[in-house]
Each structure stands twice: as structure tokens, then as C-alpha cells.
Automatic annotation (TrEMBL):
<dbReference type="InterPro" id="IPR050270">
    <property type="entry name" value="DegV_domain_contain"/>
</dbReference>
<dbReference type="Pfam" id="PF02645">
    <property type="entry name" value="DegV"/>
</dbReference>
<protein>
    <submittedName>
        <fullName>DegV family protein</fullName>
    </submittedName>
</protein>
<dbReference type="InterPro" id="IPR003797">
    <property type="entry name" value="DegV"/>
</dbReference>
<keyword id="KW-0446">Lipid-binding</keyword>
Amino acid sequence: MKLAWLIDTTTYIDDNVDSKDVFVVSLSTIIDGKPYKDTEFESSNVFFEMLKENGNGAKTAQPTPQDFIETYQHIQEEGYTHVIAIHPSSALSGTYNSSLSTAQTFPMEIQVVDSGTGSFPQKDLIEQGRKLAEDGRSFDEIVDQLESYKDSSELYLLPRNLQQLKNSGRVTNSKYLLSSLLNIKLLLKLEHGKIELEVKSRGMKKIEAYLVRHIDEAIAKGVERIGVLHAGNEKEAHIWKERILTLNRNIQVSVEPLVPVASVHTGYETIAIGWINTNK
């Protein structure tokens, strides 16, 4: 078995990570009427500046069928016999279905996984899968284990405002108006593939306390790695990192930029915190 991993740009992969067996299909971001491949941005900071200046009304587009055909073709030409493709929740994006329909036209052994999540939990899912492969697990064993892991994922979102979530249809007009008029803050959760309201409050203290309590519970249940993602406000992300480390100094906490497609939908200065419990 020569195993390749196929992901898309809803997953952040650090440039320092050895990713020779990882292939990426890019989503697109449309800002101020101009489309950009997510892989074309010079840096996350460049993208966040664009989002800050022209983020209202920004949109995203999934990879084209041709993008998937070319990527699967490349994987095949590189001599890979097996592929595991991991994509964001099919309830939020058509990327999973596009990948699945293309995969069926290739002779390789391919498993397309609907992660039911996105961002850091999705990245951790891939990293755990690569570790299983390094340990010599079979293709079916890796897929089965990933399917088990993904059900323990949690991803919380702290949007600065709901303008972009309203524009993208992730929250209703009534929730947006209520939040704006009463200065209500929301904590959202990506659960069962959909973004749901977890907590609402007139201020941030109640929301922060609620989230810290849930992080503490997750650590107690065995979570070892937590991601803190930011859409242009890295300083606040590091504040959250320190909050988490005060709960347990042995926890691995990563601070990373929130990927363009997620930042466009949730808005500039959103904070996201997520994990997968692989010890359940």
C-alpha cells in the first residue's frame, strides 16, 4: 500500500510539516468581487487585511470538478495505490460530495471521509490518520479508526459580530438583529455537521466561563491537543492559549490562523477553539 492523503483548504497545514504524501485541493474566496484561490494568498496576514477592509459580502466557492479530477490524476501518476480524502462537513460544503463523485472514476482504492467538522479538529483527524499509517495499520483499520475519532470532535466559534454569518446564511436575520440591537454576544458550536447556537449573553464573561468549563471537562476526558484559531487577532488567540494552559500545563495548545473559507463565513477577528478526543 502506498497511501496518499487528500485534503482541501478548510484544513490548515503548517509549512514546516512534512506533507509529501498530502495533496491539497483549493477552495476559492471572493473578496470585493474578485476571486482568489485560497492557496494564492501570500500569507494569512495579507488575507486578513483584505478581509478587514472588504470582508462584508465576501463569498466562498468550492473546488471545481476539474480541480478534483486533476488532483486525483496527479496522485495516481505519483504511484499511490490508496487514498484517504478528508473534507469538511457535507452539511456546510459540497466539497465532500464533489470529491466522492470524482473518486469513483479512478481505479485506486479511495475512501472519502465526511469529517463532520472543519479547521483544527479536521487537521488533527488527518494527523492521527498519518500516525496510524506509520504504525503499520491497514487501510481499513485506519478508515475505521478515523470514523470513530471524528464523532468526538468539538469546535466552538466566538464571532466578533454576526454580519458575515448573516450574509452567508449561517444565522437568521432575526438572530442578527436581536444580537445587534441588544449587544448580545454568541458562542456557536459546530455540532453534527451544523453550526448551532450554544450560549448567548449580554457580555463575554458568561461565554468565556462556559467555554473554559467545557475545555476543562474535555481535558479531564483525555483531550491532549487543542487548537486556538484566529481571523486576524492573534493576540487574543494567545490569551486563550494561556487560559487553557492554566487548566493543564501538559496540554498541547496550537495557535493558528483560521483558514480563509471559515474566516469569510464567520467574519474578521473571530476566535475558534477545537479538538478531537482520540483517547475515548
